C-alpha cells in the first residue's frame, strides 16, 4: 500500500530520467565527497558545506520544483546504503528537512540562485534545520532540556556557518552553467 | 534492517544503567557475530569518547558540579547505542540486498536511479580526477598547497566544479538515453534479467 501510494505520488510529479539521474549524482556526491576529502575535522556541522551545496545545485540546475527534496531523499537513502549514516533512518529526515527549505525558498524566490545574499540566507535557514533534528534526537533519549538546547544550538551554529559557505558557492556555479548554455 | 531498527529504538526507551548494559551486550554480540569489515573497536570507541566529552562538559556546566557526570555519560551511552546498530547494519549488508529490500518500499524508478548513480559514481569520480589533473597541467592554482590561500578557492569552482557538473549532466543524459533504448519505463512494473 505504501509503495503504491509512493508510486502514484512520483507519477504525479514525474521527472525526466535525465534530470532524475543528475539529481541522483548530486545526492551520491553529497555523500561521497565528504568521504573522499576525508573531512574528519571533528568540528560540528562541517559536512553541511557539501550537503547544502549539492542540494542547492540540484534545485538550481534543474527545472524541477522539488529538486532539492528529491536530491535530499536520494542522499539520505544513499548514505544509509553506503554506511555513512550514524543516525540510521533519521539521516533521511535530516537531509529532507534542508531540502524542503531550499525548495520552498526557490518557490517563493525564483531568482535566488543568481544572488549571493539570498543563497547565503537560504543556506543559513536550511542549515538551521540541524537544530531541530539534533534537539529531537536528544529529547527522545531524555536529555536535560537546558543541556539539550545548548548542545543543539552549538551544533546548529557550526552547521549554519558551514552551510552559508556551501551556499555561497552555488551562484558562481549556476551563473557559469547559464553562461555556457548548459542550463536555462 | 529490522533488527537494527529495533535495537536503535530500544536505545531511545532505555533509561536505566541495567537496561543499557543489557542492550550493549546484545549489540556487542551482534557486532561479534557479524564482524563488519572496516569497523574497528577503536573507531567506535573514539566516536563514543568524543561525543561523551561534549555532553558531560555541558552537564557539568548546567548542574555546576560533578553530579552531572553520570547523567551525561548515560545520555551519550544511549545516543551511541541508538546509532551503533545502523552502522553495523550498513557495513554488513551488501548493496544488492539493501537495494532489493528498498525496492519493496520505494518506487522502482527511484531505486533504479539510486542504484545507477551509486554504480556510476566511481566512473564520474575518475572523470573529475582527470579534469583536476588536466587543469593542474594547464597551470590552475588548485593544488593543496595553493588552496591554503583563500583567494585561490574560486579557481576550484571555475576549473573543477563547473566542468564536473557539466560532465555529470552529460553522463546522466547518456545513461537516460541507454535506458530509453532498452525500453526503460515502458511498463509500470519493472522487469529485469532473470537472476539479477
Label this structure with key terms.
A: 184 residues; mainly alpha; Arp2/3 complex 21 kDa subunit ARPC3; globular; B: flat
Describe the structure.
By secondary structure, chain A is mainly alpha-helical. Chain A has a single domain, classed as Arp2/3 complex 21 kDa subunit ARPC3 (Orthogonal Bundle). Chain A is 76% helix and 0% strand. In chain A, helix 2 (17-36) runs antiparallel to helix 3 (48-61) and helix 2 packs across helix 4 (67-82). The longest helix of chain A has 35 residues, at 145-179. The radius of gyration of chain A is 16 Å and the shape is globular. With 196 residues, chain B is an all-alpha fold. Chain B folds into two domains: 2-93, no CATH class; 98-181, no CATH class. Helices cover 74% and strands 0% of the residues of chain B. Chain B contains seven helices and no strands. Chain B has helices spanning 2-13, 17-34, 41-63, 68-92, 95-103, 108-137, 153-181. In chain B, helix 6 crosses helix 7. Chain B starts with a helix and ends in a 15-residue tail after the last helix. The chains are: A mainly alpha (184), B mainly alpha (196). Chains A and B meet through helix 1, helix 2, helix 4, helix 7 and helix 8 of A and helix 1, helix 3, helix 4, helix 5 and helix 6 of B.
Amino acid at each position: 500500500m505504501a509503495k503504491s501510494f509512493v508510486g502514484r505520488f512520483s507519477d504525479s510529479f514525474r521527472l525526466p530520467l535525465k534530470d532524475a539521474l543528475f539529481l541522483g549524482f548530486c545526492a551520491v556526491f553529497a555523500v561521497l565527497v565528504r568521504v573522499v576529502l576525508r573531512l574528519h575535522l571533528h568540528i560540528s556541522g562541517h559536512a553541511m558545506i557539501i550537503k547544502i551545496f549539492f542540494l542547492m545545485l540540484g534545485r538550481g540546475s534543474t527545472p524541477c520544483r522539488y529538486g532539492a527534496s528529491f536530491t535530499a531523499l536520494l542522499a539520505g537513502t544513499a548514505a544509509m546504503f553506503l554506511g555513512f549514516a550514524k543516525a540510521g533512518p533519521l539521516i533521511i529526515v535530516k537531509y529532507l528537512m534542508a531540502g524542503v527549505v531550499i525548495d520552498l525558498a526557490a518557490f517563493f524566490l525564483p531568482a535566488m540562485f543568481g544572488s549571493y545574499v539570498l543563497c547565503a540566507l537560504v543556506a543559513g535557514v536550511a542549515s538551521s534545520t540541524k537544530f531541530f533534528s539534533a534537539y529531537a534526537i536528544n529529547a527522545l533519549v531524555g536529555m536535560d532540556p537546558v543541556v539539550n538546547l545548548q548542545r543543539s544550538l552549538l551544533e546548529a551554529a557550526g552547521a549554519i556557518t558551514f552551510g552559508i559557505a556551501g551556499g555561497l558557492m552555488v551562484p558562481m556555479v549556476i551563473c557559469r552553467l547559464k553562461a555556457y548554455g548548459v542550463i536555462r | 534492517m529490522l533488527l537494527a531498527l529495533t535495537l536503535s529504538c530500544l536505545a531511545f526507551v532505555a533509561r536505566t544503567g541495567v537496561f543499557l548494559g543489557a542492550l550493549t551486550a546484545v549489540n556487542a554480540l551482534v557486532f561479534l557475530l557479524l564482524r563488519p569489515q572496516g569497523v574497528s573497536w577503536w573507531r567506535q570507541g573514539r566516536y563514543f569518547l568524543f561525543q561523551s566529552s561534549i555532553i558531560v562538559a555541558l552537564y557539568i556546566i548546567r548542574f555546576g558540579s560533578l553530579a552531572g557526570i553520570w547523567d551525561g555519560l548515560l545520555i551519550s551511552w544511549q545516543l551511541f547505542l541508538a546509532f551503533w546498530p545502523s552502522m553495523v547494519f550498513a557495513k554488513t549488508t551488501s548493496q544488492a540486498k539493501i537495494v532489493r529490500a528498498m525496492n519493496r518500499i520505494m518506487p522502482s524508478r527511484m531505486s533504479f536511479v539510486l542504484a545507477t548513480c551509486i554504480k556510476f559514481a566511481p566512473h564520474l569520480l575518475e572523470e573529475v580526477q582527470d579534469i583536476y589533473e588536466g587543469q593542474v597541467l594547464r597551470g590552475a592554482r588548485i593544488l593543496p598547497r595553493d588552496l591554503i590561500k583563500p583567494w585561490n578557492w574560486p579557481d576550484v569552482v571555475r576549473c573543477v566544479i563547473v566542468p564536473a557538473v557539466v560532465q555529470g549532466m552529460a553522463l546522466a543524459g547518456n545513461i537516460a538515453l541507454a535506458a530509453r533504448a532498452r525500453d526503460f519505463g515502458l511498463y509500470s512494473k519493472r522487469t529485469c534479467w532473470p537472476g539479477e
